[in-house]
Write a structure and sequence with these properties.
The protein is about 45% helix and about 5% strand. The protein has 5 helices and 2 strands; from the N terminus they run H-H-H-E-E-H-H. It has a two-stranded antiparallel sheet.
């Protein structure tokens, strides 16, 4: 779970090789070895580039793509939902925003919700891309999941 967080934190100031500093920024914290290995992996994979004592992102916004349903991505998304759930125990209410809404909708409206949520996420990603004063990393999770079976088709 921490690689994308390290990718963001690593660019927030010139860390040099302060792996303990990077590790301590994560919430929950990781070890300094995990921070170092994560940065090394991100550099090796081309997600980060070293620039003197700093790191820069090769691409400020990463997207898996809407048609990407690989089991690793689904596993990652489940891990992020668990992380968001656990954040309630370690984060003050003033530092988080949460909403839950239960809605009765048709398949057509579901498809429209998915389209609108993708557009909204893209807008938020663009806002974060141009934010040159980032001082904290946040996790945004959005899920639209069925909580009932569909009505049976009437003959």
């Amino acid at each position: 779970w921490w690689h994308p967080v390290v990718r963001e934190v690593a660019t927030m100031r010139p860390w040099g090789n302060d792996w303990e500093g990077i590790a301590a920024m994560l919430h929950p914290a990781i070890t300094s070895d995990q921070a170092r290995e994560s940065v090394e992996l991100l550099v090796e994979l081309g997600f980060l580039r070293r620039k003197a004592r700093s790191y820069v992102q090769a691409d400020p916004v990463l997207k898996a793509g809407s048609a990407f349903h690989d089991n690793r991505i689904v596993g990652y998304q489940i891990q992020m939902l668990k992380l968001a759930s656990e954040a309630f125990d370690r984060t003050r209410g003033a530092d988080r925003s949460t909403a839950a809404t239960v809605l009765g909708i048709s398949r057509e409206t579901f498809d429209l919700f998915v389209k609108k949520s993708r557009q909204f996420r893209s807008q938020l990603q663009e806002m974060s891309r141009v934010d040159d004063q980032a001082d904290r990393v946040y996790l945004l999770t959005m899920s639209l999941v069925p909580l009932s079976q569909p009505l049976p088709k009437t003959p």
